[in-house]
């Protein structure tokens, strides 16, 4: 025999419900929900609800429209406040009449007066979405008072699954002693006995008709009148449904906007005339046959004469792009068309399909926008640059529901975890607040440079020490087998005319945002200020996460060197300073780099030095081999000079060429120059040095690279633009003295006169004299090499990684050296 049950969605909203988070809807341009009460009644019945009620905000008009129908009762969601600071709270009041509604409105401004009235009148009431801060004022003190004021708490269908889970844990962990303490602390006496015994109800909190009864309350027994049902809730109701996520909320916001503009512009008249509108109608009002679309006013705007002015023109460009790309996507996707034309019920994962649709269309629009911007930037067309940037506002508006939704859910997660700790509902060792999980964004991971090398070493160290570190990048390759790396396929790729080897990849932003939210990162770190770095900045802001940045590369100097244009150098400086000024902390690899940032206007309080180390096992004098003789046919005695790095002009390699030519003239053929690396200057340098004792190996890695290091005698690094210089430490770990310049960070990675020599930057004569003096003194060269090895052993990468990781644990004073102490 089947057991009878009664099911009710205790939290539904109709067209009479002014949205609680009105500012959200203002962002997408509509003020309220437009779901007809009769439609809600029918949908609730279709979903198997035994009784139907509507909880509009501070009104019962929607309920009154269906009150003549069987199985209905009147309810409302009451907006109330703590009187001292106006912290906003929502309370569900069920099975009331018109007189009770009038009395509720009289007392609702003060939560204590409201609860006293509801309790005295015997009205069943519950606290709606208890861990959701409606106006950013909810604190643990408020929540403690709410525990004293309410017996019934709602598990809300539009709130985060984690929030509902946290609420269950907290309420199940309460004890009598807790309430004795709270009552004395706040001076509040509960209106009900055994206040530690809480009841849970469920409601969908649906404003759009898309998620009716996604969460509902079920009781054993068949109750056809509201009084009996509500009385049964005092026993052991069951909540069906877990909660939702930001994609669901965003989908609802799009749908609410659609319904509003559909009515406002009477878009029914376009039914059947536009493929795009049919698609959007299927996604955003799947329970009707009407044909319109999300932010449907676009249909009007698309065909309206464009207004004059750059602002209006920018917005129109984005709308036209959006429409064109959406139509192309629909045309090229037969599966999507079948979904639109189907008469089957909409799938359960409609919000996922909508996310995929918006993501793909917005990626295409982003590709057009970004190419347009960079083309004008390359051509220094300032006015068109501003026009392109203005167009970004239109794209932002189209994606605003996702940005707002992810931001709200991230904030809710943080408060819910805080509540868990506050009430001791989780053991200290399981406390999520103690967990550190870092998303490290970079535009360069597979390239041959110090940034990529450092990140690869950090991944290895993190896995060895069980740290939660994920490098997030974007490249045209599959990194599925590379542990610790999440590579997103780019929306598009832009090749810089001045630097064709360096490509800018446009990231799929919504996918990255969703990934970071779902994986629960606690910190965002940006290694580079390119498109991926900009994505990191936006994601950190949306998810309310601390944002750290590492200044690895002297981009302004590189830009000026490559373009030979001081204006471009200044423009890149302005962008770089703006970007890093958005960070909570900036980590500089050297004192000189930190000083430069501060002198350019970055706040001194933001800048920290951080430890950098070297793999002292990988690079070791014992790795000496015959690779140079056997593979590159370098024979004979003499002193071997080594350069390792990118073969590019910005590394000041013409200075090295001239200095080495003078050295050969001074000491004869007793010296050899070994050049390891690849880059745009390689062929020109090879041609310049074809009459010199010079060996070009190309790019080397692994044992080949460490073997070449250990098989040479002196390392020379003429660059004046490097912020750190990993290769300088690698050489010393391999037992080589080093020669560096007095510009940039490499000069800080040696002991002057003991493990290396510092020369004047960009000076052929200074570099030549230093090389000549060392080559003519082989005994000193050997002693400096031994000292270099001992020095590098004090700078192991493992120790440096441990030191740097602690910076995430203490945001007030991250690990590293505070600049006041070193500058």
Describe this structure in words.
There is one protein chain. This protein is of the alpha/beta class and 823 residues long. It is built from 30 helices and 24 strands. The chain has an eight-stranded mixed β-sheet with strand order 11-10-9-14-15-16-17-24, with helices on both faces. The protein has a six-stranded parallel β-sheet with strand order 20-19-18-21-22-23, sandwiched between helices. α13 packs across α15. The longest helix has 41 residues. It starts with a strand and ends in a 5-residue tail after the last strand. The C terminus is likely disordered.
C-alpha termini separation: 82 Å
The tally of helices reads 30
Arithmetic mean of pLDDT: 83
Label the overall shape. elongated
Radius of gyration over C-alpha positions, nearest whole angstrom: 33 Å
Helix content: 40-55%
Main sheet overview: 8 strands, mixed
Q: Please identify the structural class as seen in this structure.
A: alpha/beta
Q: What are the low-pLDDT stretches, counting only 5+ consecutive residues below 50?
A: 289-316, 379-390, 426-433, 812-823
Beta-strand percent range: 5-15%
Number of beta-strand segments: 24
Major beta sheet, strand line-up? 11-10-9-14-15-16-17-24
